[in-house]
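Entry type: protein chain
Record version: 2
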Amino acid sequence: MSLTVRLKNIGILKQAEFSLGDLTLICGENNTGKTYATYALYSFLESWREFINIPTDHDQIRTLLTDGALKIDLAQYIEKANQMLAEACKKYLEQLDKIFAASEGTFQNSEFHIEPSKIHLQSEGFRGEMRINQEPLLRSSKEKGIEELIFTLAAERKERRIIDSTVAADFMSSTIGNAVFSNSFPRPFISSAERTGVAIFRKELDFARNRLIEEMGRADQKTDLRELLFKAYQNYPEPVKDNVNFTRQLEDIAKSKSFIAKEHPEILEDFADIIGGDYVITQNDQLYYIPKGTRLKLTMVESSSSVRSLLDISFYLRHIARKGDLLMVDEPELSLHPENQRRIARLFARLANIGVKVFVTTHSDYIVKELNTLIMLNHDKPHLKKIVEENGYQESELINADQVKLYVAEEQLMPLEEGQKRRRRGHTLVPAKIHPRFGIAVPSFDKTIDDMNRIQDEIVWGAE
């Protein structure tokens, strides 16, 4: 399943289009739109259920509440899926100001479109239930491979009168939406560029509480404190808030075990080598970092910036990762030595190969060149196998060129729009060529390195 995203007038991005591969990278200079593309994609994937509107028929709801059961053919919704998705994108645009914590009207001329390569029903069977006050009222079920959804009332006949038809409609709508679209959109997890600071202040970063305290400090005797309590504030982009909230809940998150921990523990062992130790949660719910080969227990304040920058990724991999997820990492190279940047690139390739899609924005030439190496080594030739063995690579790290997509955020001439007489320049995303034998070509990195080499050559040889 592939996704194509088209953006227009979102932040500094004038117009852009990109598709998701198993491993997707966006490179480019600072302030060229990489984060805008990342946040726009993440926030839609995180919240699409809020914007998909599945119309429900009053007769269907009446049948359910009267007879206690209702069967729905899901094929009719597949036929309307593209139309419903287009409407969802329009509703999503209306929320961009809030999502990016921007002033009202910032995105009034923006466009956002997302298109799965194919929309098809969730193939696996599932069961769902709606409860009120811990009591089950409505149930849903779908059998594996069947295009039929069954709703049943859990309540006794005499209790059906208390079930509001609007509540029943909302439950039916959300269940149908999941059945139709959940295969099309991966579950995202974001590790934002702010994660290093978040790791230090994670317990203090309660946005609602902090803002309330701030406002109470400014309030006079006539201020209605209840109004302050329920007033909505939005100072940070939604992806950053989600990253903060995840990091604030590590103690609870640590109680779960991901499929990686169960099926691929060697990946976690290699990740521990990258950070040089392990994160631990004590019985008193205290978070520490223990450097390898020591008994030291370091708080996040006492730990290195590289340890802090990989904290949320570690807990994601160990505790909540699922197959089919989309792991989104903004600048994974933060605070990492070049050797560990190479190892992070190899980790991303391994994740892509076991079913976790990876989306990265990066300035790191080391990451891109290491991915080049993994692509170039992935051929059945004797000398390549020797290189793999001699340099400590693993077969699980090698990746095909067609699994990788890379885009360069840069300024280019835009296509002519209606009413324009000449093309104008604007920021966009340019796909890089990826050759199965020679890997990825990223001219912006090569130019910077060539300039540095040229200057050093002139320093050394210029006097001759």
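Comment: The mean pLDDT is 87.
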